[in-house]
Each structure stands twice: as structure tokens, then as C-alpha cells.
Amino acid sequence: MTFFRKLRSPGLKVYSCYILQILVIEFHRQQSEFSRADLGFVQETISLVYQDLPKEINVFDAVGLGSKVFPGVSSTTGQNNKSPIYAASEAKLERIMKGVRNAMEDVGLQWNERKCAVVHVRRGRLQEPEENGIGAGEAITSLREDAQYKFLGVLENVKQQDGLVLEQAEKEYLKRLSVVWSSPLSDYYKVLATNQFALPVMSYFMWTQVWPIADLQRIDRETRKIMVENGARHPLASTDQLYIPRSSGGRGLKSVESEYKLIKIKAAVKLCANTDPTLKLVREFEERAVDKGRRSMLKDASGFARELGIELELEHPEPVGRTEEGELVDKKKIGVFAKKALYTKRRQGIEEQRWQGKLVANRWQDDQLDRSCFSLLCEWRTAPTYTIAALEELYQQLLPTKVYSTRKAKTSGDSDVRCRLCGKGQESVAHVLAGCSALAQTAYLTRHNAAFKILFFELLRDHGLVNTVPPWYSPTQPKPIYEGEKVTAYWDVPVFADQTEVRANRIDGRIADKARKTVTLLEMSYPWVDNRDHKDEEKIMKYAPLRLELETVPGF
Ligand SMILES: [Zn+2]
Hints:
Radius of gyration: 34 Å
Bound molecules: zinc ion
Protein name: Reverse transcriptase domain-containing protein
Organism: Stylophora pistillata (Smooth cauliflower coral)
Largest sheet: 5 strands, mixed
Helix content: 40-55%
Strand content: 5-15%
């Protein structure tokens, strides 16, 4: 056991190496820098040299990195195969390196001294570099206290430099974000690029680094600021809505903070579920940190899970999660479960917003609406950002109406909120969209026809009266009459009734099927959601005489 105790001495990076193993497994799954064959090759080479060592010290075997960890105080890192070599003393290190070098040359590999660095640690302290006699070729640079060596992308010296890594990752992340959001990409692809091109700069490190949540929240704020500056977002738009899926009416962006928390939860679960004997050391290290009241990955993860209503029971080898209802979540499903819980939490946040969240929440609660009412956000992938941003402003009631500037933004002290167009109703988003009498005959009618013609053309095609349906943005208007052998369709043609009491005769569309002897009346309206039932009744009442009249038409 003294051997393992030595391994944990603060000067050694052994602990970070084990964590690295988790990282490397993840790394492999995503984008491997080395192929499996390469790794096997390197491992074989190295194990040839150290075959006399006890098996349990072979840390990287499980991931195929092939390196041995030695108890000791000096280490060097070779970037070519990305394996640190540890040795008890400089003399030993030199011997080992010579061996590795020879073995590598035997199999045709070259050792690149310029990409290596050496660190001498004595009793946990970094030693000032002396004349460097290490290595069997060119001299290898010694790391000073303020210098870093990059191992698997992570800056390290005696230990990993969490702060510096965050600083550099943040810089790159924000740089990529600025490029993405000022580009001519469509909104859908900007979000996709943010999640898959910018965010991984940060999330790659999240498995191993410990970062303050406040910093991650700040980065999220920076993200939103960049979006606002590029006209992709209203400054007062709902934050929660930005981070829920587009299919639910959100923007589908991933937040740095929640990504970090989800990754920490998954890493803790993975650590506790892993049966590899070497990972046991990390687990013990973490468990001891919990016992001693020190910072621990397990403690952090439990805290993050608790925020989402999951109590983690991190027992080896079967960690489980327990929901607030006492339901058990399997270790494999904890990640997905946490993601769902996060979504539910954001949704509740939106439902509680009385202004920005109201209209979207109304749609969720509406049992008559189809689930796909937000599908344009996912399916219209070429929609430019300003269109989606404007749509968001409508949904979140952020149009600069009088009601908005008096009650929400409070930029106007004017208490008169009457509509500037009709002077009657309150000038709110709902009024402008569906209640203003000044717009009824112009804008509303255009909108009505533009939407109804799509449905109408689809019906015409189904009845074989046209061959193609023009796209929604096409200026083509339907003709008043389409005559087929069996079916005749009318677009906005009044029905001339025999009986005089039929006044409401101008219906949007009519399809007369001679074979089946039916007339289908098509009428479309855009009531405000709260007004829908009332509008339905109104239409049924309005056209009741006409329906009666049509029933008396001979032959139908
Ligand atoms: Zn009005």
C-alpha cells in the first residue's frame, strides 16, 4: 500500500491520470486522434520494455494508451504518443527513456524531443530546472513554474491548470460564437454550429476540469450578449426559452452551465459504475475527499443532480438515482433523465413568466393544438435569423407596442395605451395580430388568403384539379373556379341562393363533388386562442341558413 500512498503524493499527477482515463474513453468515442491500431502499437512497444512491472500499475491499459506509471518524483511527457512517463529519480527516468527510445526505433517510431517536456518534483514541489542531462538524444526542456505543458489538450504543470484551461477555452468559444452569429448562416444552422462547433471547445474539458459555476454563468451571459448584438435576440427575451428544444417553441441552444452540470453527473455515475481495478483508486480518492470535507467530483455531481430533483446514490458498482417520487433511475438512464428534468425545470420557468412565457405556455396547455405547432422552427432550416428573432418577439410579446413600452419596458410614462391605428382597443401584440379593426380588411385579409390558399391547393391536388401545389411563398393566387369531371371547386365565389334570407353567402372555398353528391364548405379564420370557441360558434351560426339552402339544391 505504501506504493499507492506514494502515488497520491501531491506532486504527482497520478490522480489526474486516472481521471484522464475517463476523459480518454469519452475522447475515443467522439473523435479519436489516434486510431486503435496506433494505440495498440505504442502500448505493445512500451510493454516490451517494462514487462517486469506488476500488472496493476498499468494505468492506461484499459484505454489502450499503453504506458506505465512509476512511483517517483520525476516525470516527463512525450506528446507524440501522449503518454506521461513517471520515474522515481532522474537517473531512472533516463534509463527508461533510453529503453523506450530504442524500442520505438526498433518498430520504426521516432522520438521527438522538441515536443517533450520534463518536470522534476521533490516532496510535492516543482524543482528549478538544473542542467538537463535527461534523454538519450537532444536535451528536453524543463518546465518552469509559470510554463505549461499541453497533455491531451489540457494545460498542466505539476497539476492541471484548471483556471488557465478555462480562460483559453472561453476565449476560443467566444471567438467561434462571434464568427457563427455574425455569419450569413440561417438561424437553425447557427444554433447547430453553436452547439456542435463552439460548445465542444468547452465541453471537451468539462470531464476533467473543475470550474466555478459563476464563471460558466458569465460565459452564458456573454453568449446571449453576442446574440443580441447580432440581432438574433431581443434583449428582454426569455432566457429559458432560448435553451428549450425548438420543437417546444424554443431556440434549441445548449447552455454552458447546464452542459457542465450534466457532464459532471454523468462522469460521477461512470466513475462509480466502472469495474476497472485502476479506477478504484480514483473512486477511493474521491470518497476520501467527501469524508474529509474536501471538494469532490462526487459531491459536486450530487449537488447538481439535486438541483434537478434527483438524489444520486453513488454506490459502486451500481449507482442509481432516486427521483422526488421515490422512483429509481438506472445508472444508464441518469444522463437522459437529468436532461429531461432540466427541460421540465425550464418549462416551469416559462410557465411562470407572465409576459414573455404566456403565449408559448398557452400553446402547450392547448389540447386542441397539434403537437407540431412549432415545427416550422425545426423544419424550416433556411429561415434567416431575423425572421426567427421576430417570431420570437411576437411569441414573447416584445413588439414595441404601447402596452409594451408602458407596462413592460417602462420607457414611456404615457398612460394612454389605445391603439394608434384604430384608437379603440389596447395596443398589445394580441390586438395587433388579431383584433385591430383598422387592419381587418387589409393585412388580415392578405394573411387569411395566403394561408388558406395552401390548404385549398392541397385539396385541389387531392381531387386531381391541379398537378402541383405552389410553395407557400409563391404569389400565385387560385383561380375562382376549377372544373373537373366529377368535382368543381370554387375560391371565394358567392353562392347565389334562391332564398333571400341567405345573406352570409360569401364563403372562402367550396368543393362540390358530383359523384358523391356532397358540397364541402371551407371557411377559415384566425381567432386569438382565447377567442376560438366563440369564433367557431359564430361561423356555424353565420352559415346555418346557407347550409340549409344548399341541402335543398337539386341533385345534392
Ligand atoms: Zn387597433
